Amino acid sequence: MDQFIRLAVRGISLSQIQSGIYVLLLEEESGKIKLPIIIESLQAQSIASALGKRDPYRSFTHDLFLSLAKEFNIKLKAVVIYKLVNGIFFSYILLEGDYIEKEGKKIEKKEHKIDSKTSDAVALAVRFQAPIYTTREIFDKAGIYFENGAPKEKENDTSETEMENSALLFFKEKSQQDLENMTERDLNALLNHAVVNECYELAARIKKELDRRE
Questions:
Q1: Domain range holding 173?
Q2: Segment 108-154, tens digit of pLDDT
Q3: End-of-domain residue from the set 93, 116, 142
Q4: Are 133 and 171 found together in one domain?
Q5: What mean pLDDT comes out for the span 79-99?
Q6: For residue 78, how far is the Cα from the chain centroid?
Q7: Of 64, 134, 188, 190, which is least surrounded by CB within 10 A?
């Protein structure tokens, strides 16, 4: 996994404006770059439960998966967020099964790569204490740079960042038609700024528009 960036779960934020909207915040090891991902309520609760922030007696499907994996000696080696399209993050989980028996001898463990919704993959990674990775390309496209706890402009990208910040304020009061006229690249940039500034109502509208374009 040397070519990937390792991430840690920074936290989960609940929108006080838009019901059912949660933001999963991942960060790289230095903590200077964060990756915000909009997730559904059930997955948010499951991740929070695994982090010890909810009722430990409540069980989720991810807990059942963990129990089954332990029973059959299956290990979750890693979660990889490998693609970002129209504001949607694509992930896979890397599983390692039990030893393969050949001619009565245990030879090797077999790896399986399975596509997964990113929120489900993270919920499993927290339970298995497995590492989470992403690509440099995704970080460059969707990562938010922080300095002293506040968003920071990317190097050599001042004019673009200023434009995006202005767009954030401008589009708070704009219609769905305005969003429909924006390019996919601009929508992704605006989505990142909406999330980091906790404008979840705007983020939900942008996400809906990106989903429509699939």
A1: 152-212
A2: 677 889 999 999 999 999 999 999 999 999 988 888 776 555 555 54
A3: 142
A4: no
A5: 88
A6: 14
A7: 64
